[in-house]
């Protein structure tokens, strides 16, 4: 997929930079306001820049402004952007569906994998990490919307799945991730997030250290924060609209 390139025109470059910085300020204000209304500290919620299809020059504007987390959906983009972005301190999370054949590559470029959703993948990941003498942080992806078009472990299987992962010492499970229902109805979206929060509590009660909740994007971050999100994934509201809606980019089967 072609990246959205930054203009070579100085005036246009300045406008792009100005827009990104303004958008970042708006998103951070939204996060702070949502935290205040939910009785939470803004320090509890991290902003992850969803950078799929975004040119490295645009990402660098955000990193230079102090952002430190980016998330990529595709292994090829993860690799392609690595050299351009490595000069600025940041962490890269892989947030797309991970194919087993891509494990070798992703562990060389990502600091965290947010889409661990099946034991066969986790076993292969463990073996590769053992071979390379590495560890990696991981999130369990849960399909809280029960949509067939989305990946993720079924909610009723999540606890048993997490308990099995505890035996895989090279994967440091840090939290849970979900993609909320693509809907204009807030309460339907809220159910997805509150379900993940309930699953988190059951896991914490069993001693599984899933302290992070990665949920909420540009359109529903306030609801996610109300329900306990500790990481918000935002792309469109910072870098501008992509050629297709979010549902296209997150449906990795198409």
Task: Provide an overview of this structure.
There is one protein chain. The protein is an alpha/beta fold. The protein is built from 10 helices and 8 strands. Strands 7-6-5-4-3-2-1-8 form an 8-stranded parallel sheet. Helix 2 (56-64) links the parallel strand 1 (46-50) and strand 2. The radius of gyration is 18 Å and the shape is globular.
Helix content: 40-55%
Largest sheet: 8 strands, parallel
Provide the gyration radius in Å.
Answer: 18 Å
> Judging from the principal axes of the Cα atoms, what is the shape?
globular
Strand content: 5-15%
Query: What is the total tally of β strands?
Result: 8
Can you count the helices? 10
State the distance separating the first and last CA atoms: 13 Å
Give the spatial strand order of the biggest sheet: 7-6-5-4-3-2-1-8
Q: Can you tell me the residue ranges where pLDDT is under 50 for at least 5 consecutive residues?
A: 250-254
Structural category is alpha/beta
Multimeric state: single chain
What is the residue-averaged pLDDT? 92
| Secondary-structure element order, N to C | HEHEHEHEHEHEHEHEHH
